[in-house]
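Much of our argument rests on the idea that a fold can be written as discrete symbols. This step matters because it turns folding into a mapping between discrete strings. The record that follows shows the chain in one-letter code together with its fold in token form.
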Amino acid sequence: MTVSTLLRRFERSDVTMTVYGPSEATAVVERLESQGIDATWRKLPTGHEDAFAVIRRDGVFAETIPLTALQAFLCEPTVGSDDNGPPDSDPGRQLLHSALANTLLASLTPAQLLATSHEFEDRAYRVGEGVLRVSFQSLSIFRSQRARYETLASDTTLDIHVYGQDDWEPPPTTGITFHPLTDTALEQVWLLAFDAAGDDQNKCALVAEETDDGPFRGLWTYNPQLVDEIMAAIVAVDR
């Protein structure tokens, strides 16, 4: 399985959104459309804090999420100063990722992918066991996340595997196995997969590939069979 092959499975998924909020919410509609999602705006006479978005899949109601969560992810994703500390839990962020699972997004930024990676790392931290496999494209990119992963390794019994192009030698870290790669299979790919020690309720994965014009296209999933398939594909690259 290649990342492109996997993503093609979701190209025909019918996901639409209706955003209810003040006129400022039209910016969210524009960002949704840039991600390949059919979105419309409906004026809501109350304040911004009451704004929300309704998600439909194949014409059937799927989820309602606060506009603030959608706006934070689509329009202004940030990495907080404490993101190298112990992972935490954000209910709004969790709801957003659950609502958009298995949705192919056409124009993801590194900040959005990093926010999603952190959400899944937080889940792995809370579970505290199992295998976490992560591709950083190149091992030198891992340096910015090193403190965070050292916390994951020291506070849990997670078996962490980090993959990337062999352009830097990470210092040995208990609980983390590094996989320097010499081929280009993952050079333009952002991958993270967590098997939750076999607990299907907590499995998760993120898959994205860099496009020719810069952004990434990708998706995340909580489907246990798909997570297992992604885990196996990552392992196969290192053989």
In short: The chain has a mean pLDDT of 90.
